[in-house]
């Protein structure tokens, strides 16, 4: 498979959030502001690239029977390393993401890419796949975050953009609002992809 | 039998390398994380007590005797203790509410800051806002504070407000029983 195709797949045609609809728990939980969504996306991207590369490197030495435990160990290691780095150097982000940062370990996007892609493809392709899926996830979370922050708090990336008398719609930044906005986005996204398929 | 040993060995190597990578990362980040935590506290304490020149961690028997109290600092000005800052942890609506309360040695509250909370956005998280927090400034610590009597709660957020005042009352209790 050519790497260009792999790259576009991860970001758009096979977007983890809008097409595969996996990793919903962190998606809904941390997308209440643009910065949180973006930060979570980047942290997950770093884990994805790292775990995809290592798993792809180990794929010939990994017996089938124990591949899942090995995936889990590799993923958990990367998550913990990223967690410590974020806590040390990006403390505000660490506090904003809270429990969802260590919970990247159970994000099914990462295990899914390990099993479906990295275990069967070359190291370079796997790195590209990790990057593109990570960016696809980041893109989705940032779009969600921008919309929810705009209507729920009247700001974008922490800067107030709505007029002064704007009363924030609290529900949008609460969990229920996450479902509402995600549902609307999924519908819009599938309009475009459905059109493409019928042409 | 051979297979099991071989599989175990492979798994062992992978976990051993992981453990090594983790311990190296931990060594690099540990000190920075600790420093940042102290710095963050200091920034809040300086806001509560702008005149303070230095803060010292207090240790000793009884310091952590009140439930909810996490850390106690004395604030120094001209070499003398003129106030205390007490860090408390109470249960809110969405998780732990961590509050720093400054109490002057004369028995009045210098101020409070919510240093960490995960209350409902735009509702419970207003306990960290100016409007709620500034009500405590200057209140006497003769007795326990009561919600809607000494201070107004954040409307619609009773649990969060109760958690906040609970933390402040723990600080008051510690001040009266140990520090005074």
Structure characterization notes:
The complex is a heterodimer of chains A (199) and B (180). With 199 residues, chain A is mainly alpha-helical. Chain A has one domain (3-145). Helix content of chain A is 72%, strand content 2%. Chain A has a two-stranded antiparallel ribbon with strand order 1-2. In chain A, β1 and β2 form a beta hairpin. The longest helix of chain A is centred in the C-terminal third of the chain and has 31 residues, at 123-153. The mean pLDDT of chain A is 88. Chain B has 180 residues and is an alpha+beta fold. Chain B has one domain (47-179). Helices cover 41% and strands 23% of the residues of chain B. Chain B has helices spanning 2-48, 130-133, 158-179, and strands at residues 54-57, 69-77, 80-91, 96-104, 109-116. Chain B has a five-stranded antiparallel β-sheet, with helices on both faces. The longest helix of chain B is centred in the first third of the chain and has 47 residues, at 2-48. Chain B is elongated and about 75 Å long. Chain A binds chain B through residues 32, 58, 61-63, 65-66, 69-70, 73-74, 76-77, 80-81, 84-85, 87-89, 91, 95, 98, 152-153, 168, 170, 173-174, and chain B through 6-7, 10-11, 14-15, 18, 21-22, 25-26, 28-29, 32-33, 36, 40, 95, 116, 118, 120-123.
| Oligomerization state | heterodimer
Number of helices of chain A: 9
Distance between the termini of chain A: 24 Å
SS elements, strand count of chain A = 2
Shape of chain A: globular
Q: Mean pLDDT across all residues of chain A, rounded? A: 88
Gyration radius over CA of chain B: 22 Å
Low-pLDDT runs of 5+ residues of chain B are: none
Termini gap of chain B: 70 Å
The helix-and-strand class of chain B reads alpha+beta
Most extensive interface: A-B, 29 and 24 residues
Mean pLDDT score of chain B: 90
Radius of gyration of chain A, CA atoms, in whole angstroms: 18 Å
Order of helices and strands of chain A: HHHHHHHEEHH
Total tally of structural domains of chain B: 1
Poorly predicted ranges of chain A (pLDDT <50, ≥5 residues)?
A: none
């Amino acid at each position: 498979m050519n790497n260009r195709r792999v790259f576009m797949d991860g970001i758009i045609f096979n977007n983890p959030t809008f097409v595969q609809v996996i990793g919903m728990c962190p998606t809904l939980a941390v997308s209440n502001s643009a910065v949180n969504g973006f930060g979570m996306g980047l942290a997950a991207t770093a884990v994805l690239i790292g775990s995809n590369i290592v798993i792809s490197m180990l794929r010939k030495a990994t017996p089938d029977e124990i591949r899942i435990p090995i995936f889990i160990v590799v993923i958990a290691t990367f998550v913990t390393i990223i967690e410590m780095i974020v806590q040390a150097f990006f403390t505000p982000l660490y506090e904003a993401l809270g429990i969802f940062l260590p919970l990247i370990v159970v994000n099914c996007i990462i295990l899914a890419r390990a099993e479906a892609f990295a275990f069967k493809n070359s190291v370079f392709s796997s790195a590209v796949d990790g990057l593109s899926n990570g960016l696809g996830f980041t893109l989705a979370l940032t779009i969600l975050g921008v919309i929810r922050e705009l209507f729920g708090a009247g700001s974008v990336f922490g800067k107030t953009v709505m007029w002064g008398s704007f009363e924030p719609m609290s529900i949008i930044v609460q969990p229920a609002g996450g479902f509402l906005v995600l549902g609307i986005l999924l519908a819009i996204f599938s309009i475009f992809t459905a059109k493409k398929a019928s042409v | 039998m051979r297979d099991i040993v071989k599989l175990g060995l492979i798994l062992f190597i992978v976990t051993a390398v992981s453990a090594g990578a983790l311990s190296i990362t931990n060594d690099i980040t540990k000190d920075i994380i600790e420093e940042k935590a102290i710095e963050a506290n200091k920034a809040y304490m300086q806001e509560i007590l702008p005149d303070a020149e230095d803060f010292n961690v207090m240790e000793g028997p009884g310091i952590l005797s009140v439930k909810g109290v996490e850390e106690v600092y004395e604030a120094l000005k001209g070499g003398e203790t003129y106030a205390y800052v007490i860090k408390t942890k109470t249960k809110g609506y969405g998780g732990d509410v961590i509050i720093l309360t400054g109490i002057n040695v004369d028995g009045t509250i210098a101020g409070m800051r919510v240093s960490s909370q995960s209350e409902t956005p735009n509702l419970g998280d207003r306990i960290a806002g100016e409007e709620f927090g500034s009500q405590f400034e200057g209140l006497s610590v003769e007795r326990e504070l009561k919600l809607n009597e000494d201070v107004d709660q954040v409307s619609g957020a009773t649990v969060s407000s109760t958690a906040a005042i609970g933390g402040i009352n723990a600080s008051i209790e510690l001040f009266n029983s140990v520090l005074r």
